[in-house]
Design a protein that fits this description.
- The protein has about 200 residues and is an alpha/beta fold.
- The chain has eight helices and five strands; from the N terminus they run βαβαααβαβααβα.
- The protein has a five-stranded parallel β-sheet, with helices on both faces.
- Helix 1 crosses helix 8, helix 2 crosses helix 4 and helix 6 packs across helix 7.
- The protein starts with a strand and ends with a helix.
- The relative contact order is 0.21.
Length: about 200
């Protein structure tokens, strides 16, 4: 059983995901997914971290990003280390996780990568802009103006990333099994609802 969570910045996606994983006894993957992909591919985790949820609109430049890695390809053909390759390697890691264990996976197009699986609950969490700004401002200790700008910028980046790699639209209701405005109730009550849905899906 896999629960994927796409989320807007400041919606509480990580906190809710961690609650779900803990209460269900599932593994939880966020940034540690990048470590998983790095270990499986033999590529330094810093490459995945710098390209995390970004597209080819943000080229990998500087340092080793301009080099070519012949060990990544077969038949003697070199393959450039770029966002598309990193996305494929990350997708491979997501699929292997889904094959071996129950997990909650945050972001990174996991719902699209696992689109063929029937044991997957696909969730989108969003929140009112004012609430998102307040949470980000408190968490990062920045001004309201800075937090608001960061929320807008990050959500645009996440949308561009998803829309670039998936055949559906980030944040659009029909892309997911359920969309929840986290401003309307507590994280605990949201986790309760998602656990009930996941349990029903497992029973099927």
């Amino acid at each position: 059983m896999i629960i994927t969570i796409a989320r807007t910045l400041g919606s509480g996606g990580r906190q809710i995901g961690e609650q779900l994983a803990q209460r269900l006894g599932f593994a939880f993957y966020d940034k540690n997914l990048l470590t998983e992909a790095a270990q499986q591919s033999g590529i330094n985790a810093n490459f995945f971290d710098k390209a995390d949820e970004q597209t080819t609109q943000h080229p990998l430049t500087g340092g080793l990003f301009g080099m070519r890695f012949p060990f990544l390809s077969g038949g003697g053909n070199d393959k450039a280390l770029d966002h598309d390759l990193l996305f494929k390697l990350q997708s491979d890691a997501i699929q292997k996780i889904a094959e071996r264990e129950n997990a909650v996976i945050l972001g990174r197009c996991a719902d699209y990568v696992l689109r063929q699986r029937t044991d997957c609950l696909r969730v989108f969490l969003f929140t009112n802009h004012d609430d998102a700004t307040k949470r980000v401002m408190e968490r990062k200790q920045i001004t309201a103006e800075e937090a608001s700008e960061l929320v807008n910028k990050t959500n645009k980046q996440r949308a561009n990333y998803y829309n670039h790699y998936a055949s559906k639209t980030w944040g659009e209701a029909q892309t997911y099994d359920i969309c929840i405005n986290t401003s309307l109730t507590s994280f605990e009550e949201i986790a309760d609802s998602l656990i009930a849905l996941a349990t029903r899906l497992q029973q099927k």
